[in-house]
Specification:
Length: about 130
Amino acid sequence: MIRPGLTFALWLALALFVLLNDFVGDTWLAPTMPVRAVEWYKTLVPLPYVAMLALIHARRTAGPRWVEAALLAALLWPTSTVLLGFVETRMVYGEDPTVFLDRLGFWWGAPYPLFVVGLLAAPMLAGAALARRR
């Protein structure tokens, strides 16, 4: 069953966690760690949380239309989280859009695309795993 309210509520929890995680990384860790290490921190710490939220979403939307529900989350979560990250860095730090787009530069080893792919894949993988068990 598709539950847009649940998808939005879980995204809101994810967005708050990501904003708090970015705040911790940028204010507490950045002065003491290299830039690359802070970027890895900001990418790897939220991934288990994303997996947990994807499992909650999959359990609540299990049924014959689980694919549509998982696809809704898989399309909304990465898109809106990246936009939220852009707005946050723009408003708080006054960064240019090119600086934010550098976070997506996988060709130089930026880990942020791993987070975006995790947001995209987690709802689909969790939904498929729980649908297979039934």
